[in-house]
Amino acid sequence: MKNSISALILTIFGLLVAYMIFPPFNISFGKGSMLAIPIGFIIFLIGVTYGIIAFYKKEKGVLKYISLTPIPLGVLYVVFIFYLFEGLI
Asked: Which of 24, 43, 81, 87 has the greatest number of CB atoms lying within 10 Å of its CB?
């Protein structure tokens, strides 16, 4: 599988897992629900890494650019988490 396709799938899946416990999803797993935040963010970072690798290897197509577009969402997510927990993570 190409790196750009892997990057797109992992970034979307990572963001969904990381946002899972917040509204409108509100999917709770009991005591382990807060672990979804770092696990999802790590999956997201792996996807971004694959996007950077695809960009570095100069894969053909536009998908390598699309796989790098969620980077601002990751930055906003970190800002959101720090605001939510008031920097006490």
From this structure: 43
